[in-house]
Amino acid sequence: MPNYFPSNHLRLPLVLLLITACAQSVGANEDVLREKGKRIYTNLCVDCHGGQGEGVAGAYEAPLVGDASLGELASQITKTMPEGDEEACVAEEAEAVAAYMHHAFYSEAARIRNRPPKITLARLTGNQLRQSLADLYGHFHGNTAYTDERGVKGIYFTGSRWKNENKKIERVDPTIDFDFGKESPGEGIDKEDFFIHWTGSILAEETGDYEIIVRSTVSFTMDFGKMGRQLIDNHVQSGDKTEFREVVRLTAGRAYPFKIDYIQRKRKTEQPPASISVSWVPPHGTEQLIPRRNLIPWAVEPTFSLQAKLPPDDRSYGFERGISVDRQWDDSTTAAAVEFGHVATEELWPDYRRRHKDVSDENRLRLKNFLTELVETAFRTKLSEELQELYINRQVAACPDDGDAIKRVVLMTIKSPRFLYPATDATDSVSQRAANRLALTFFDSIPADKWLLAKVQKNELQNEQQVREAAWRMVNDFRARGKTREMLHEWLNVGHIGDITKDDVRYPGFDKQLVSDLRASLDRFLDDIVWSEASDYRQLFLAKWSYSTDRMADFYGESWQPVADAEAAVTEEGKLPRGPGPQRMRKTGDDGQLRLGVLTHPYIMSGLAYTDASSPIHRGVFLIRYMLGRTLRPPNAAFSPLSADLHPGLTTRERVSLQTSPESCQVCHSRINPLGFTLENFDAAGRFRVRDQDKAVDSSGTYTTRDGQEITFQNAEEVANYLASSEDAHRAFVSRAFQYFVKQPVAAYGPDKLDDLTRKFKESGFNIRSLLVEIAVISALEPHSKKIAG
C-alpha cells in the first residue's frame, strides 16, 4: 500500500505551517468583520455616540465602555441601536459593529491601549494622614509587634495602694467585668481595703469613634494612650455617679495602652459594694464589654490618634484618592498640625529630653536634634543643608520658647508638600524609595519603624529579594492586618450597607444587638481565613462553618448553635464574665446548605435586602460588580420595588422579573437578575428558606463570562463553588486588593500586570498574604523614571 503521509521529520513543519495559515486566515476574517462594523458604526452611530464612543452632548452623553462579551454586546446592539430604528442593525451587521466597537474602544484592553493609565500624583488621603501622624509619634517610642496574647494584666493588693509586700494576686483577666459585692477579690485580700492595678492595651480593628464606658461603684482613674494621659478621673467617688463615658477616635490596626487603678478604701460609714466593668461602643456596633480578642495583656508603647475631623476623599474610581485640594482640606490639615504640635510639645519633647539628658545642649542642640529627627521622619529623607536651615535653624532662632519652636516647625512640616505628597521622592536612594512605598502600601503611612530605617541607612532595600523579605515582615503587623480587614470590607461593599433594620412584625428579634453580633461574626470569619497558615481565598466561599453567638443561634436556628469556645473567656478561677454582653463568639459546626463562607453570611444577606423582603437586584449587583469585577452602567432612574401586598400571589423572584421586564431595563437586569436569583433561598434577614409566598423557591440562575461562556447554577452552593474557581472572580479580587493597597490602577504598572498578579495568585494556592506581599513588591520596585500624571 503506498504511503501518502510525509515522513516524521516533515510532519511538524507542515503542522506549524497549517496552524500559521489558519491563524492568519482568522485574523484576516476578523479584520474584514471589524472594517465592516466600522462602516456601519460611522453611518448609524457616530452622531449619537461619537467617533470613539466618547458620547455626544445632547444625544447620548455616556461613553460606550464596558466588559460585556462580544455576544452580549451584539445582542444589546440588536435590541437597542440605533434608538428608534432598532431593525436597522441586526444579525450579522450587529455582530460586525460589536466586533469593531469591542476592539476599537469598548473593551478594557482597548481603553488601556488607547489611553494607557498612569500613576497619578496624589496627596495623602485622610486615612494616610491619620496613620502617618500616628507613626511619626510612634517613631520616638517604638511600634507594637504582633502578638497572639490576649486579656488584661491585673495585680491585686490588700490595702488601698501599691505595696509590693501586699501583692496577693498577679494574673491575666479575660476582660474587666467584676462584681465583688462586699466580698474579697481573692485570698488574703481585705474585703474592705484593697487596690487593683490593671494594665493592657486596646486593639482597634477599624477606624472611627469609640465610646469608652466604665461603670464603677468605687474610686478609680484611667489613663489611655499613654501613661499619665488621663482619660477618666474618679479618684474621689462623688455622689451616686457610677457611669463614666468618653468618646475617642481610634485608628484601625493600632493598639492603645491603658491603665486603671481601682481603689476600695475602708470607710467609717457603710461600705459600698465593689464592682467595675469596662465596655465600649465600637463603630457600627452596640454597647458591649470590650472583648478579650481586643485586649493585649500589657501596655504597649505610647500611641497617638488624631482627633481632628478630616474630609472624605474621592472614591469615584472605586478606591480612595487624595486629589482634592480645597479650603476644607487645608483647614483640616492645619487642625491636624496644631493638634500634633501640642502633643509633640507636651509629650514627645519632654520624653526626648529625658532620654538625651547627657547630650550637650549648647546652642539648643538637643532641641535642634529632636526637630531634625521629627522633620526627617515626616519627609521620609535626610535634610539638606538648605532645608535644615529653613525648617530647623531659623525657626529655633525665631522662638526663645521651646514649645513655640516645636509648634512652628510641626505646622510647617505637616503643611509641606514634602510630607503631604509621598511621590516627591524621585531624588532619594533606591532603598529610601522602597521603604516609602512599603510603608505606604502596608500601613498607609511613612517609614518610621527603626528596623526599616536601619535598612535604608544600610542601603539594604535595593533588590527584589531584600524588598520581599521586608514585605513579609510587614504583612503580619497589626497595621497591615487592620488595612487588610478594611480592604475586605471594601471588596464585600460592607461600608455601604449602613444600618440594617427589619420589619418588627415579620422578623421579631432582629435588633441592633443581633446586627452587631452578625458584623463581629463576619469579621472573625475573615480574620480566621486570611491569617490562617493557608490564607486560602477559596475558603472565603467554600468554608461551611462560621462564628456565632447564642443570640444568633436563637434567631437563625440550631445550625448556628456555637459548638467551640473561641473566646476562651474564662478567668483562672473558671468564672465566666457576668452580664448580658458581649455575646461570646464561638465557632459553629459545618453546614453546607446554610453556610457558604461570606456569600451567604447573614450579615451580607440581610444587608442586601429590604426591611421586609429579599432583594435579588441588590444581591445580583453585589455578585456581578464586587465578586466578579464586572461593570454596570448606572440605572436610568431610581425605582421602588413592587409591593408584595399588591402582588400577594407572586414570589420575590416573580415580582422582580415583572418589574424589570421592559427592554430598557433588560440591558442591565439580564445580567443582574439571574445572579441575584441564586440567593433567593435566603430571606430578608438572611435566614434559609425553601418557600416564598407558599411556593417553592426557584434559586436557579446564569452568568455569562467575559469570554462569552454561559454558566448555569441551580443554587447558592454552585455559585460559591464557581466564585472559588472563577478566573473572573480571581481577577476581581486581585484588582480590588491592588487598588486598595496601592491607591493606583493596576494597569498603570503595565498592561499585563493584572494577568501576571492573577497567575501568581493561583500558583501560590490563592494565598491572600502572598498576594499582598506581591502587590507591595511591585509598588516598591516600580521604576521612578515612569512619568507620573498630574
UniProtKB/TrEMBL annotation:
SMART domains: PA14. Residues 32-105 form the Cytochrome c domain. GO terms for molecular function: electron transfer activity; heme binding; metal ion binding. Coiled coil: none annotated. Transmembrane segments: none annotated. Residues 147-294 form the PA14 domain. The keyword Signal applies. SUPFAM superfamilies: Anthrax protective antigen, Cytochrome c. Keywords: Heme, Iron, Metal-binding, Signal. InterPro entries: Cyt_c-like_dom, Cyt_c-like_dom_sf, DUF1585, DUF1588, DUF1592, PA14/GLEYA, PA14_dom. Residues 1-28 form the signal peptide. The keyword Iron applies. This is DUF1588 domain-containing protein. It comes from Bremerella cremea. The lineage of its organism: Bacteria, Pseudomonadati, Planctomycetota, Planctomycetia, Pirellulales.
